[in-house]
Specification:
Alpha-Beta Plaits, two-stranded antiparallel sheet, elongated, alpha+beta, 22% helix
Length: 148
C-alpha cells in the first residue's frame, strides 16, 4: 500500500489518466509515490473536442483605430491581452498607435472564449474585430466532422 497522496478523479466527467509522457509524473519522496491525474482540457485546450488552436476565434486590434484606452485589456480575465509598454513612443509619428505609451497587445489568442466578443463591444473606437460568426460556424462544422 502506498503512503502519501494519491489523487484519483477518474469518476468525474472530463478527468482522465491519459497523460502524455512529458506530463505523467510519479514522484518518489521517502518511498512515497504520488500519481497526479489532470483534466484532459488542461493538457490540450479543446472546444467540444476540437483543439482550440484550430479554431480561428480571437480578437484582432486595428491599430489605426486604437487610442490606447485599455478597456479590452482591463476587461478580459482570460489573459488574452497584456498592456504593452512602449518605451520609445514616436511623437512625430502620424499614427496614434506609434505615439501611445501603453497599448493593448494580444499574447494568448487561444485563451479567448469561442463566441465571446465582449471586448469588441466595449471598445468605443471599434478597434477590435473578430471573424464573422457565419465563417466560424462553417469552420466548426468542418472541424466537428474531422474530430467528431
Amino acid at each position: 500500500m502506498h503512503r502519501g497522496l494519491r489523487v484519483v478523479q477518474s469518476s468525474l466527467p472530463g478527468w482522465s489518466n491519459k497523460l502524455s509522457k512529458s506530463r505523467r509524473t510519479k514522484t518518489a519522496v521517502e518511498n512515497t509515490e504520488t500519481e497526479i491525474w489532470v483534466r484532459e482540457s488542461e493538457l490540450t485546450k479543446t472546444y467540444y473536442g476540437i483543439p482550440r488552436e484550430e479554431i480561428p476565434w480571437f480578437p484582432k486590434i486595428e491599430t489605426d483605430k486604437c487610442v490606447g484606452c485599455l478597456e479590452c485589456a482591463n476587461f478580459c480575465r482570460n489573459g488574452v491581452f497584456v498592456v504593452e509598454e512602449n518605451t520609445n513612443p514616436d511623437k512625430a509619428a502620424k499614427s496614434t498607435w506609434e505615439k501611445l505609451r501603453k497599448r493593448p497587445k494580444i499574447v494568448n489568442p487561444f485563451n479567448c472564449v469561442v463566441g465571446c466578443s465582449a471586448c469588441a463591444k466595449l471598445c468605443k473606437m471599434e478597434a477590435i474585430k473578430f471573424p464573422e460568426r457565419e465563417e466560424i460556424v462553417k469552420v466548426l462544422q468542418q472541424l466537428r466532422s474531422k474530430y467528431g
